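FIELD: query
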Amino acid sequence: MRHSLELTMQQRPEVLERVLRVTRHRGFTVTQLQMRINEDASLSLDIMVDAERAIELLSNQLNKLIDVTQCRVIPAAALSHNVCAQ
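FIELD: result
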């Protein structure tokens, strides 16, 4: 099953590596990744993952990372709407 997450993180050299390590350790495969720097110097990361596991297993762990300030799961209904609009 495909899931999408939006993360807001502090801009630090190791933050992306930590997010990807947690994602891999929780059994999720990254299928798409987009990162940008916000006006307030924080990072926004849109990540699409694929796994048969519940997305809450990943989002709860990402919320615990010190550099992650927000982790939001994008509902599947919004995903299918965005894919159709493109």
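FIELD: remark
Residues 23 and 39 are 26 Å apart (CA to CA).
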